[in-house]
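Recap slide: Dihydropyrimidine dehydrogenase subunit A, sequence and predicted structure.
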Amino acid sequence: MAKQPMLKFVDVERDMPEKRPPNLRSHDFNEIYAEYAREKAAEQAGRCSQCGVPYCQSHCPLHNNIPDWLRLTAEGRLQEAYELSQATNTFPEICGRICPQDRLCEGNCVIEQSGHGTVTIGSVEKYITDTAWENGWVKPANPKVEREESVGIIGAGPGGLAAADLLRREGVQVTVYDRYDRGGGLLTYGIPGFKLEKDVVMKRMEQLEQGGVTFRLNCNVGEDISFEEIRDTHDAVLIATGVYKSRDLPAPGVGADGIVRAIDFLTASNKKSFGDSVPEFDNGELNAEGKRVVVIGGGDTAMDCVRTAVRQGATSVKCLYRRDRANMPGSQREVANAEEEGVEFVWLTAPKGFVGDQVSGVMVSRMRLGAPDATGRQTPELIEGADYTEDADLVVMALGFEPEELPALWNVPELEVTRWGTVKADFQTHETNLPGVYACGDIQRGASLVVWAIRDGREAAEAMLDQFAAKGQIAAE
C-alpha cells in the first residue's frame, strides 16, 4: 500500500519559501519570497490534517476547497490541484501572494491550535498556479455558445475582472470601462511589485482579452461616457469602481508641500516600474529618495508605503500609528518584513499638525489605550504634555479610503447610497435599487480585501446569469 501522503504535521515542521535577505530585497521591487520546489510544496501540503470540518475553508471568503487541493498537491497531481483551486477563485496566484492568510485560512488552521504550526496554504496556492501558467494549463474563456446578453462593468479591479471572467465563460458579451491606462485597479497601481509583480496581473489581463472581454481604458465615466449611455448599451451594468477617495486629516499645516496621499505615492512608484514617464516622481514630489519619510497609518496600505520608501532610497522611514502593535489592522507579517528592511514603527502616536510650508516635521501627540469601544478595541487617549516633533521631508497619508460621490459624479441622483457613501446593494444578488444595475467589491462593502472583491464579483455575475435565464423563460412562455 502506498504511504499516506497527508497527516505529516507531527513529523514535518512548517517551512515557508525562502525569503530574500533584507539587504538585497530592499533595493528592488521584486517579490521577496522564492518559489517552492515541487518536493517542498508536496511536503508542506502533506502537513494538512484533512479535517472533517476544515476551518481554513470556512474562513476563506471564497470557501476554496483547500484540503482537497492540498491533498492533490501532496500526491503530485498539480494540474488537478490547480483546476480545483480555479473552480472557486478567479485569481488564485494573486490571492496566494497578497491575501492576509494569517487572518483568514492559515489563521484558522486546526493543526496550529495543537501547536504544530499552520499549513503554508498561501505559498502552496501560489506555487500550484504559477506551475499551471508555466505548463499552459491556464486557459482563456472559450464558451460553447455565444449569448446575446451584454454586460458593462465599470472598474477593472479584482471584483470587476472576476465578474467579467465568469460571465465570458458563459458566453455573455462583456465590456469593461476603466479610468486608467491599464486594467487591474489597485492590483496594478496600488500594490507594490515586491508583493505582487506586475507581469502576474498583466498575464490575467491578456487572458481575459483572449477570452473575448472588451476593455475601454482611459475612459472616465461621467466625462468620457455617461452612466446612462452605459446602461442603454448593455442588458446589465456592474459598478466595481473600488474606493479611491483618500481620508483627510484635519490638522494645522495639512496642505503643506511634501504631504502626499498614499494612492498617489504608490501609483507613481508602480508607473515608474512599468517604465512610464511620471513627472511628479522625477521632480521629487512623489519620490522618497534622500528624504526623511513619515507614513501615517497602520493598515496594509501604510505597510506598502513604508516599504516602497525604503526601496526608493529614503534616509529614514518611520510609521506613526495611534494604537500598539497588537491592535493595528495591517498584516503582522508585513510589519515584520518592514522592520527587517529598516522601518521604525512609532506606536501610540498621532499627528496633531505639520511644520513648514514645505513640510519639515510632524507635530506628534503621544497616546495610551483606554477603555474598549463598541467593537471591543481599546480607544486611543491623548497623553497631555507629551507632544514632540518628528522630523520629516516627505509625509505620506495612509489613513484609508472612502467612496467617491458617484450619484453626483455620474449625474445619477436616483442611485441609492448608504450613509457612508457606498452603493446600496443586496449582499447576495448585489443588485442596486436601479433595475439591472449591480455593485460589488469596495464600492459596496467599503475598503476591504481583494479576496472579498473577487467573491462579490463572482456572486454578482451569477445573479446576472440567473436574471438573464429568468427573462429567457418568460420570453419563451
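The chain has three domains: 22-134, 150-243+403-476, 246-399.
The two ends are 58 Å apart (CA to CA).
(End of recap.)
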